Amino acid sequence: xxxxxxxxxxxxxxxxxxxxxxxxxxxxxxxxxxxxxxxxxxxxxxxxxxxxxxxxxxxxxxxxxxxxxxxxxxxxxxxxxxxxxxxxxxxxxxxxxxxxxxxxxxxxxxxxxxxxxxxxxxxxxxxxxxxxxxxxxxxxxxxxxxxxxxxxxxxxxxxxxxxxxxxxxxxxxxxx
Length: 176
Known about the structure:
Blueprint: H1 5-13, E1 18-22, H2 32-38, H3 57-64, E2 69-78, H4 83-103, E3 110-112, H5 146-152, E4 167-175
Antiparallel strand pairs: 1-2, 2-4, 3-4
């Protein structure tokens, strides 16, 4: 048992389906990912946690090189009727675990969730964020190819094909 196993256990206790310690070198970053945000997501240019406000792919690549560990987290089988609740739950889980890891002395800990922030119905970009303790950028908003990253780490993630299909949320907390 490593000293990091307790973070995996905490993630599971907080509602994650799975959690795993990974090498940040397995995280795939690509410039094309931002295009999926820009052309196809309602969060683009609408929220602080989304492009163009989120870190660029170039920045993310450099940032990942500054970390030796990552905690990959998934919540699986989210039904469309509970998607909003689970999106908020994942972001809170990431922020809470990031804080725990930070307080344990890993002061560079930084978390990223998935999808646009949903704490405010509309993000007021003329004012500071109302939820800075919980708001985190989406992995994909930072240029991370979540599908390939998850597969590189031994987890599954499939494309959601209909609005009635269950989905999976993924998050990453970087640790150094």
